[in-house]
């Protein structure tokens, strides 16, 4: 069992159809995503912050992957299985237009491999 502590820089873009939320609304969405869905482990709420199909842009390897809410539920569920005490702490949030950048720290104790 290994304790992990990571600082994450997360960039999120939100836009559905022709409607683009305000920067303030986008900050609320990412805050809800990390604090309520991740920290409180409420995966059933993912459909409230993601459209049915969306592109996941992976900053680690530069890939773009089409996903569904069910795909995201599985992905995050696997993360929770490996890190049952996974927890985000949000530092700074900056939003402009349809983009949100935040500095966050996540920590957790890895119990099983991913």
Brief write-up:
This protein is α+β, with helices and mostly antiparallel strands and 114 residues long. It has 3 helices and 5 strands, in the order βααββαββ. Strand 2 (53-57) and strand 3 form a beta hairpin.
Description:
There is one protein chain. By secondary structure, the chain is an alpha+beta fold. The protein is built from three helices and five strands. The strands form two sheets. Strands 1-5-4 form a three-stranded antiparallel β-sheet, with helices on one face. The protein has a two-stranded antiparallel ribbon with strand order 2-3. The longest helix has 17 residues, at 23-39. The two termini are 13 Å apart. The relative contact order is 0.28.
By secondary-structure content and strand pairing, the structural class works out as alpha+beta
- State the major sheet: 3 strands, antiparallel
Order of helical and strand elements: EHHEEHEE
Secondary structure: number of strands: 5
Low-pLDDT sequence parts: 14-18
Strand content: 35-45%
Q: Taking strands numbered 1, 2, ... along the chain, how are they ordered across the largest sheet?
A: 1-5-4
Look at the structure and give the mean pLDDT: 83
Note the overall shape. Answer: globular
What is the terminal-to-terminal distance? 13 Å
Q: How many helical elements?
A: 3
Helix content: 25-40%
The radius of gyration computed from the alpha-carbon positions, rounded to a whole number of angstroms, is 14 Å
Which terms summarize this structure?
alpha+beta, 3-stranded antiparallel beta sheet, two-stranded antiparallel ribbon, 5 strands, globular
